[in-house]
Known about the structure:
Blueprint: E1 8-13, E2 20-25, E3 32-37, E4 42-45, E5 57-58, E6 64-70, E7 77-83, E8 90-91, E9 105-106, E10 112-119, E11 122-129, E12 140-145, E13 148-149, E14 153-154, E15 160-168, E16 174-182, E17 187-191, E18 198-204, E19 211-216, E20 223-227, E21 234-236, E22 245-252, E23 257-264, E24 267-274, E25 279-283, E26 289-290, E27 298-299, E28 305-311, E29 314-321, E30 329-331, E31 346-351, E32 357-363, E33 374-378, H1 392-399, E34 403-408, H2 417-420
Parallel strand pairs: 33-34
Antiparallel strand pairs: 1-2, 2-3, 3-4, 5-6, 6-7, 7-8, 9-10, 10-11, 11-12, 13-15, 14-15, 15-16, 16-17, 18-19, 19-20, 20-21, 22-23, 23-24, 24-25, 26-28, 27-28, 28-29, 29-30, 31-32, 32-34
Amino acid sequence: MKKKFVITRPVQVARRKPERLLTLSNRKGNYELWAEDLVAGTRCQLTNRRGGTVFGSLSPNGTHAFFLEDKAGNEHGHFFRTPFAGGASVDITPTLPPYYSYGVSVSDDERHLAFVGSFGKEQRVIHIPFSEKGQPKRARMLFRSRNTLSDVLMNPNGRQMFLVETKEERSGKRTLVFLFLSLIGDVRRKKTTWSGACYPLAIDGLPGAERILVLANHTGMYRPYFINPKNGKAEQVLGRKFPGDVFVLQWFAEKQLMVFCHVFQDKRELFVLHLHSKRLVRVGPTSGSFDLFFGSVALLPSGDLVLNWQAFGTAPHRIRLFGSSYHSWEPLERPTAISTKPRTLKSVWIRSKDGTRVQMWVARPEHIRGPVPFVMDIHGGPDGIVSDEFALEPHAWLDLGYGYCAVNYRGSIGFGKAFEE
């Protein structure tokens, strides 16, 4: 019997209206962008493209969404703006040639927008001013480079932007440079001793307390840092040491609240950090997995948190963490059952030829006894990881009588620097 699995994932939460979110859902077939207001209880489909739409951005007040309109799925096109409540979409860069880009960053008053686009062999920072009536003006290039550029962050006040440039040295080493851009194109560079990856996440635009949140792995493990925009110095966010990688899921700057997930070996642990007191609280389910990207947690006026949770036998669905302490939680949706019987996914450790311990996930078809053939699932990356998470393919193999095995081979994240390298 065929089943339809409706999967809805958060794409971005509106910074100043954290109960509004842009989601990705296959509710009507293709994955498309939807606008949802968790307080009003409204849901509106924003895109309806032949090949679907998987990337988008949301303005800070949750009034507009942005997506890349390309030609027949070639991933090169123009950003379009569409109202949160639905309606006609507008090309905001009609005078530019087609470009490749993931998303945009918008000032709080929505008078300024910026993005990094790939134009041939170079990447450019593009700035778009808007009129008082919200009409896009002519796009301006503020910076260009043949090096790799991160996404750009627009300061909430619209006066400055931040991004990271990765330079390839002749020795093969990669060095990171912090770039601070003004609206008139002035560039201030801060060369770092960091290598590896660094992802700008958000800017706290509160007067007198400006700081930039980034995620970096220059130590070999992913950690969040605050960057001081005045001097470019970095400060670790976490006072406690964690053995695995730490991914920030959300930062509510005005509430002094941060939500992050610790990934270590076969476990994912959800935490809430109260920044003003440095109090760290383990919250939520103790098994399964959470979305590991920034902007995936919504905040209700009650203080409750809403995010996605999943496990091997449970499709992704929303849960609500109650704001009194965030210890208690409840599901907000009833996911479609994958099987009439519970399916067990076991975490198994083996030793390779040189003695290195390697972790894998193993599941057997519940209706067959004795030996069965196995399908080996190798994740991409190699800096990726397989966790106790939902996917349709393993269950299809189990239905056909095959066993399923997913290996976190050397190079996977979450097992320490030596294992990853």
